[in-house]
Amino acid sequence: MDKSWIDLANRHSSIYYDGIDKFLTFAYNNRDLGSRIYCPCKKCENRYMYVRLVVRQHLQDYGFWKKYRKWQKHGEVADFVDMVDGYQNESSYMEDDMVRLVQEALGVPIIDAHDEHNGENSTEPSLGPNEPTKAFLKLLEVANLPLYPGSKKHTALSFIVWLLQAKVLHGWSDNSLKTLLEILEEAMPEGVQLPKSYYEAQKIVEDLGFTYMTIDVCPNSCMFFRGDDISLNECSVCNASRWKEGSGGMSNDGVEHVKPKAAKQARYFPLKPRLQRLFMCSKTAKLMRWHAEERTDDGVFRHPADSLAWKDFDEKNTFFSGDIRNVRLGLASNGLNPFRSINIVHSTWPVILVPYNLPPLMCMKQPFIFLSVLIDGPKAPGDKIDVYLQPLIEELKELFEDGVATFDSFSNEMFQMRAGLLWTINDFPAYDNLSGWSTKGEYACPPCNSETGYQRLYFGKKGSYMCIRRWLEDDYEYRSDPMAFDGSTEYRLEPRSLSGVELLAQLESDGVLT
85-94, 136-145, 310-319, 329-338: which range is least confident on average? Predict the structure, then answer.
């Protein structure tokens, strides 16, 4: 099909209008005229769906998105090939938003047949993926099947996810979903790909990696009930009951017949499989090298890799920086109220991880921001957030010290992927919780440590810190001006930054400053 009209500067010419009509005729070839299609104008960029008249108006007003040359989302057959398993994907179900979400979030290794990776960057002999990776890729291939033969709107996966979402939103029981699945199987065409029960539907989602660990927590956030403590019924620190009052039941013979409900829980999302999936798509795997191979290193701060913290980390950990594919992470956390009403006092704390290997326009996008820990409310964890971070810290230590075998689809080989946490991102109160350093009172300033110069104002009745002149140049006039400040001069040098060993010694001494 002639697509030269897309590049015309005059969007009011007859040639441009004819091109729009031909495109819409092609897009609606197998559709009802009243149905919606993705709008490929410069403003929408295939993110939103509208009816034919609206799409036509958008293309006239804003122009056609010039990067959209292969119209896969409008019926044009794309020439895709899986470089890992070597199979030809004859049809694309990219119209399905749910499948696109899975492909972006999990890194489905389906790329263009003319990808620059094709033979140019592969190593000889090819090591190929290991067995777990092959099994996972095979699962994704199966999950991409249509809902029933001839279905072009839905895949089995997207339909199942929508049903599970509706179950959660509307409080359906497991049996009601099972009945609905039976009705749908009878009503839909022969060959429909649907599970038989809620359990089977849930297993499909779990096998795709949409899963997490639910861990019981002490109601006072003292400890996790896991590992050696998984069978305890009371907290070993405060002796609080693990279960909600009245949630369990006992029969006359003393045997429990109603499963008790945990008083408080946290959800942990494993990190390793999600980092591994970043390397399963050859294009994303190539971009994981961007910080070292394509970044402009001219001293201008454009990316976290230009920071002194990144460079200092590489110098101190040469075994880590020796492989540019190793993942650098940042951690962010804060409390939020998930309810729209401000009258409800509730604080749920998500803990987020961000991989910084990617280019700046990608590393802060939603598909590459990983929810790691979700701490239930209604109260914030406070200083006990370290209890909830235990599984993440254990996994980060293992990833940093030992790494995990990962298949790099760009170089077509297995490698030992490591991950390191560079810093945390948070406001000042959350800094208190994450670091263990109180941001209130006499020693509230972390850089000053024990030399804050804290004073309590006599009339204002508030604390103040009068040591800011320590950061001025030695001969600055403010250092010798007592009248403009607190009546004293200031000739001390700026506080010395403590080493990690000294900070650890302070923590082990229960925060006693020396």
Answer: 85-94
Written in H, E and C, the secondary structure of 225-273 is: CCHHHCCCCECCCCCCECECCCCCEECCCCCEEECCCECEEEEECCCHH
User: Are the C-beta atoms of residues 224 and 217 closer than 8 Å to each other?
Assistant: yes
Decide if 295 contacts 394 (C-beta within 8 A).
no
Query: Final residue of a domain: which of 401, 435, 469?
Result: 435
470 and 358 within one domain: no
Q: Please provide residue 176's backbone torsions phi and psi, each rounded to the nearest 5 degrees.
A: -65, -40
Domain that holds residue 15: 4-74
Please state the domain count of the chain.
5
Which residue from 358, 286, 284 is spatially nearest to 109, judged by alpha carbons? Answer: 284
Alpha-carbon gap, residue 140 to 137, rounded angstroms? 5
Task: Answer yes or no: is 441 within a domain.
Answer: no
Q: What is the Cα–Cα distance from 445 to 431, expressed in whole angstroms?
A: 11
405 belongs to a structural domain: yes
Q: Are residues 424 and 285 in the same domain?
A: yes
Same domain, 306 and 176: no
pLDDT on residue 420: 93
Answer whether residue 95 shows pLDDT above 80. no
466-474 long-range contacts, CB within 8 A, separation 24+? 467/492, 470/494, 470/495
In a domain, 327, yes or no: yes
pTM value > 0.85:
no
How does strand 37-38 pair with strand 349-355?
unpaired
299-314 average pLDDT score: 89
